[in-house]
Amino acid sequence: MLIPGNAAIGQSGGPTAVINQSLAGVIDGLRESGAGAGGTIKKILGMRHGVRGLTQDDLHDLSDIPTERLDRIANTPSAALGSTRDKPDETYCKRILQSCQKHDIRYFFYIGGNDSSDTCRIVNELSDASGYELRCFHIPKTVDNDLMVNDHTPGWPSAARFVAKACMADFMDNISLPGIKINVIMGRHAGFLTGAAALARRADRARSTDGPQLIYLPEVPFDLERFIHDVATVYDAKDRCHIAVSEGIQDTDGNSIGAMFIQGETDAHGNVQLSGSGALGDQLAGLLKAKLTPEGGKPPRVRADTFGYIQRCFPDASPIDQREARGTGRFAARLAASGDVDGSVAIIRTSTAGPDEHYASEFRRIDLADVAAKTRHMPEEFIEGTNDVSQAFLHYARPLVGELPEFDRL
After folding, report:
1. Within a domain: 307
2. CA torsion angle for 30, 73, 148, 278 (degrees, to 10)?
């Protein structure tokens, strides 16, 4: 089943708290197949900064890394090999294949989101066409939780855990010094991470009024006048309001609200860099101050925070996320060693989400075309009205995020 040659592993896109677990998992799986130490798979090579490093011959030999060090790296957030935002087209992928041939790489593992899976797909098709035997496997990663087929993706449970805990603490701050607080959370097209803010509410009440009382997702068209009305309603009733807003909120025509307030800088994919700016929160805060100040009166206290990059790499990973992230890497390595020539790894939930769920999942191989360059959105059953998530979403998310602290107040 094995073919002689080297294996290469790369990490791509935004880092996460568990992306190194997947890296360690691939190494674990390859070693189980006898990689290194004179085995059929001669070396395990790490690509420095993803495929960019591969095409520049910037490779790090991971074959003999001690297990103790590998375990420390696995528990370290961010991408140990360095990452890249490069989005390879066919010409770029031809260079990737040439580099694989140059370094006798026969096993190609790429950890990342939907663009990374598309890179695997293109490289795989080019290798098939050229007659060069190359086994290409995509390992899922994204805090946005937006990959098709997967129940959830490695990285999201840990980022969701951060969002939930941050909003729990921030809500306590909000009731100590009442006012209006806006938290802007990652998620350009999918609202899973912003929705996790709802886990900050007490779980022992059917309709808790804990914050955030208002949650705005990119899947629901955002209307500024309705937003002002929503906030005013909560603020008038409680003299405070706690709000979670996705960076990717859009108007009814699909135009990004955040992009309207940000000028110039774009990422490698041509998208306005929403996570690198506090403009959306600042503009919404200014709007609320202007609209909710009574004539001749004092403006309300309004503050906004943009969580930014800290939410994706905070060192408090979900236990399930750690276990599954490593498992996806192991599973990909085993697929390649068993003779599969390509594919992506998906996490499939085998238990039924609900209040009495005993969570269970499994890994499956899926076709690269099923996930490549596609985006999954929050399903309708996870959304409630125009400013909230449903109980079904909370049941879905709770076991993945892990146990949260219990707070009390006078």
Report:
1. yes
2. -160
The DSSP code sequence of 231-269 is HHHHHHHHS-EEEEEETT-B-TTS-BHHHHH--S-B-TT
CATH code, domain carrying 191: 3.40.50.460
Q: Hey, which residues are catalytic here?
A: 144
228 pLDDT band, cuts 50/70/90, is very high
Q: What is the pLDDT of residues 324-336, one digit of tens each?
A: 999 999 999 999 9
> What is the pLDDT averaged over residues 53-63?
98
Residues 6 or more apart whose Cβ sits within 8 Å of residue 251: 221, 222, 223, 257
In terms of C-beta density within 10 A (0-12 exposed, 13-18 middle, 19 or more buried), how is residue 255 classed? exposed
Round to whole Å and give the CA distance between 120 and 140: 12
Q: Which of 19, 24, 130, 31 is nearest to 78 (CA)?
A: 19
The amino acid present at 131, given as its one-letter code, is G
Peptide bond into 157 cis (omega under 30): no
- Residue-level length of the chain: 410
Structural domain including 359 reads 5-155+316-370
If you search the block for the tokens 């009166």, which residue do you land on?
A: 297
Beta-strand runs (E) in 257-381: 302-306, 342-349, 361-366
How many distinct structural domains can be found in the chain? 2
